[in-house]
Write a structure and sequence with these properties.
The chain has a five-stranded parallel sheet with strand order 7-6-5-8-9. It has a four-stranded parallel sheet with strand order 2-1-3-4, sandwiched between helices. The protein has helices at about 15-35, 60-70, 90-100, 115-120, 135-150, 170-180, 210-215, 235-245, 250, 275, 285-310; strands at about 45-50, 75, 105-110, 125-130, 160, 185-190, 205, 220, 260. The chain is globular and about 55 Å long. By secondary structure, it is an alpha/beta fold. Helix 5 (about 135-150) crosses helix 11.
Length: about 300
Amino acid sequence: MRFRHSHLLGIEPLAPDEIRAVLDLADDYVALNRSATKHAEVLSGLTQINMFFEASTRTQASFELAGKRLGADVMNMGMQASSLKKGETLIDTALTLNAMHPDLLVVRHPQSGAVNLLAEKVTCSVLNAGDGRHEHPTQALLDALTIRRAKGRLHRLTVAICGDIAHSRVARSNILLLGKMENRVRLIGPPTLMPAGIGEFGVEVYDDMAAGLADADVVMMLRLQKERMDGAFIPSEREYYHRFGLDAEKLAHAKPDAIVMHPGPMNRGVEIDGTLADDINRSVIKDQVEMGVAVRMAAMHLLAENRRAAAA
């Protein structure tokens, strides 16, 4: 099937068959990335601009690598030193970039909805690399690919998402994707880190790790996003780890073959025990990093195909 969108702004607009289309193509790119050549010409002649208004290591590096492996001309904009610091608006920046005729615009921004606003002002395809607390669609897609490859399926699994749900765009995108693919989603964390109205998302909510992890197939830990907190959401990191940090004792409540995930960067000894994070028999955290490049290659490939089809 075809991926029917000109942008990738979130998981919410995607149909299950479109999610599968991204993951199926990403599987092909996993194989390419493990080969000796690691190069294709799918984006040859196209220009990709990466605009990161928030600091990022994994996401920006994987988007850059994905574009270069597909043959694109890739430019990273140093937004910390851009004209925005001189008072230029986000829309003016978008119009300036649009005049350079890019084909793919990858944007991370601290404000929810900023990426959608940009997409309305430019003629190229826009990929959301994370906007505020709203969405992080490629993270959810790479998590889905990791789960599918580890478990052999992406439906009727019990997935526990644990930690700072309230401030996490990763959690929101994963809740949407996993729900669309008919999985049972549990959210575990202190009430102070649960967003209002979370029950409307069709999830189960727990404030006890033992109950929430019972018979889980997948355990997805989240980073405490202290940069988005404007108050005391937890008593202390030590207390948080005691109650909600993942260690072998808590993981024992999940299924014996449950996999452990984390989108990174990890706070070892706060969200997760370091030994467990490195356990190759349970942790797929390094696999998530690898899948990130393949998923972003697939997403840009499909959007570029749509651009060419629309121009034909």
